[in-house]
Amino acid sequence: MRNQEDFIAWHPDKHRSFTVWSAYCLALDEQLRAQGSGASSCRPSGDRPDWKLIWQCAVPPKVRIFGWKLASDSLATQVNMCIRGMEEDPTCTLCGREQEDSFHA
Ligand SMILES: [Zn+2]
């Protein structure tokens, strides 16, 4: 038992909050599963076999690292820094119109 209020959680996201990116990953996963490719982007174990696609791309290392950070939602966005307690305002500092998550960045 936790001494915490119940809340609505989005299970595909590791932070349990809805993001366009996590919805995209879920839709892509469903599409690949429907095609029977077996190349699901996520496995119950949490493995991501498609990481090889990123790491084997013939692009500069900084582009591979950026792709991995984007796919794993670990870019230093305002939203992620808020989640980690490093920022208080998740609003984009460039446009100021919406939250800066990975998709916005
Ligand atoms: Zn912006």
Short description:
The chain has 105 residues and is mainly alpha-helical. The protein is built from four helices and no strands. This is Reverse transcriptase zinc-binding domain-containing protein.
Distance between the termini: 38 Å
Work out the strand percent: under 5%
How many distinct beta strands? 0
Order of helices and strands: HHHH
Give the % helix: 25-40%
The structure class reads mainly alpha
Organism: Triticum urartu
Pfam family, one: zf-RVT
Protein name: Reverse transcriptase zinc-binding domain-containing protein
InterPro entries: RVT-Znf
Features:
binds zinc ion, 105 residues, mainly alpha, Reverse transcriptase zinc-binding domain-containing protein, globular
Task: Spell out the blueprint of helices and strands.
Elements: H1 20-34, H2 51-55, H3 61-71, H4 78-83
Verbal overview:
It holds the Pfam family zf-RVT. Residues 47-104 form the Reverse transcriptase zinc-binding domain. InterPro entries: RVT-Znf. This is Reverse transcriptase zinc-binding domain-containing protein. This protein is mainly α and 105 residues long. Helices cover 35% and strands 0% of the residues. The protein has four helices and no strands. It has helices at 20-34, 51-55, 61-71, 78-83. The chain starts with 19 loop residues before the first helix and ends in a 22-residue tail after the last helix. The mean pLDDT is 81. The structure holds zinc ion. Zinc ion (ZN) binds at residues 92, 94-95, 97, 100, 104.
